[in-house]
């Protein structure tokens, strides 16, 4: 037997003031996107703002449906909109934040597996990592330099090309 270990590296910032102006702006736009969330069932609102290589910013928020599988997370709303509207522009950075109606979210919340897998498709397509900025309503901020940080054994297209 052989043991395999993969580590993840996150950068933690104590406050938004420690971020670059571009990252502060993107996180603020994600907080604005939270306000457009439709989450009457979970009462858990998520906002995402992503910046494309050409500088365009696209926002998304979670959109629930009483038939839960019919809803969509904020990350996929934003990244699918980017892919449909700007199909030849890589995503450079995504900021994701949350707000709950019944309690305060003090820690960053990681994206779900379906969102991470969907986001990874755009890393694969453009052959470059996507920086991800995460923050709860308040508190520390995490920054990752690519999606393998969150899912080191993620399913990649190379697995389909094996002969």
Keyword list:
163 residues, alpha+beta, six-stranded mixed β-sheet, 3 helices, 6 strands, 25% helix
Structural class: alpha+beta
Q: What is the N-to-C succession of helices and strands? A: EHEEHEHEE
Give the name of the CATH superfamily.
Cytidine Deaminase, domain 2
What is the CA-based Rg, rounded? 16 Å
Question: What kind of oligomer do you see?
Answer: single chain
Give the % helix. 10-25%
Description:
The protein has a single domain (11-155), classed as Cytidine Deaminase, domain 2, CATH 3.40.140. The chain has helices at residues 21-34, 74-85, 113-126, and strands at 11-13, 44-52, 57-61, 91-100, 131-135, 141-145. The model has no long low-confidence stretch (mean pLDDT 93). The two termini are 26 Å apart. It is built from 3 helices and 6 strands, in the order βαββαβαββ. The protein is α+β, with helices and mostly antiparallel strands. It has a 6-stranded mixed β-sheet.
Question: Which secondary structure elements does this structure contain, and how are they paired or packed?
Answer:
Layout lengths: L10 E3 L7 H14 L9 E9 L4 E5 L12 H12 L5 E10 L12 H14 L4 E5 L5 E5 L18
Parallel strand pairs: 4-5
Antiparallel strand pairs: 1-6, 2-3, 2-4, 5-6
Helix pairs in contact: 2-3
């Amino acid at each position: 037997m052989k043991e395999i270990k993969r580590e993840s590296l996150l950068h933690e910032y104590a406050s938004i003031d420690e971020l670059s102006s571009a990252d502060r702006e993107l996180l603020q736009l994600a907080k604005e996107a939270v306000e457009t969330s439709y989450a009457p069932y979970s009462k858990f609102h998520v906002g995402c703002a992503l910046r494309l290589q050409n500088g365009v910013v696209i926002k998304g928020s979670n959109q629930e449906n009483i038939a839960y599988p019919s809803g969509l997370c904020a990350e996929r709303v934003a990244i699918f909109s980017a892919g449909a509207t700007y199909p030849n522009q890589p995503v450079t950075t995504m900021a994701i934040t949350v707000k709950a109606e019944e309690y305060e979210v003090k820690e960053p919340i990681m994206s779900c597996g379906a969102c991470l897998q969907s986001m990874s498709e755009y890393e694969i397509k453009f052959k470059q990592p996507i920086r991800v900025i995460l923050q709860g309503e308040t508190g520390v901020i995490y920054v990752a330099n690519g999606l393998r940080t969150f899912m080191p054994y993620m399913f990649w297209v190379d697995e389909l090309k094996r002969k």
